[in-house]
Protein: HpcH/HpaI aldolase/citrate lyase family protein
Amino acid sequence: MSIKPMRSMLYVPGDKPRAIEKARTLGADAVILDLEDAVAPEHKQAARDNVQDALKSKWPCPVLVRVNGLGSPWEHDDREMVLLAGADGLVLPKVEEAQTALDLHVRVPLWAMIETPRGVLNAPAIAAAPGVRGLLVGANDLARELKTKPHADRLPLLYALSAVVIAARAAGKLPIDAVFNDVRNPTAFARECDQGRLLGFAGKTVIHPDQVATANAVFGVTQAEAEEAQGLIDAWNAARAEGKSVATYKGALVEQMHADEAGETLAFWQATQGKTT
Structure:
């Protein structure tokens, strides 16, 4: 079973070379070098050059590039650089329909940002489009278009968040939760991570180095959970060896579904070993 965890995906502004270099050491499961919102128009060219230089050397994790959106003055140069520089993926903002992904003809995995009501409504088709690896929620833009107000439990966005998770999971793709803006409030960030995990997200986009470890922990598997999974698998295998179609583990009934889930948990744990958390 091939598992590539995406518990934390760290945005790094492309016009900040020192931040780009530091990102190599922070233990994120993926880094997103940003050419879009985090970069002012007058710095777009410098940011693109920085990102191109950064991609020339080896990284300890996948490196994606968020390009400027379709219709912007920088879109073609951004995408050409991503393709030629060997990025591990392209993050495209404000995807609203599957045809956008189909028309790009990019040769790297595409991560589609769902940031608008139309994007939410069309998320199932976008997720199912060939080449799309996952859906990333852009909650700031989405909240603005929905005319909502900030809410500690993201109540106004719950429908949209769940819709993205369902669309991605149905297509076998990864749903990634939105950024948390208040980097000075780690308690609230951890709470939002817990909520995202409960909703079914595979990980979270983050904007500050201090958020990486929390996202890795919340969206990861603990050693205790891995040991529990192994124990269940052992009980299941023993029962199957005796010709039984069900087993019991710690008093609970175990069927094939539970064994499969335990196998996924154990594989995920093994895939994260050796990573900084």
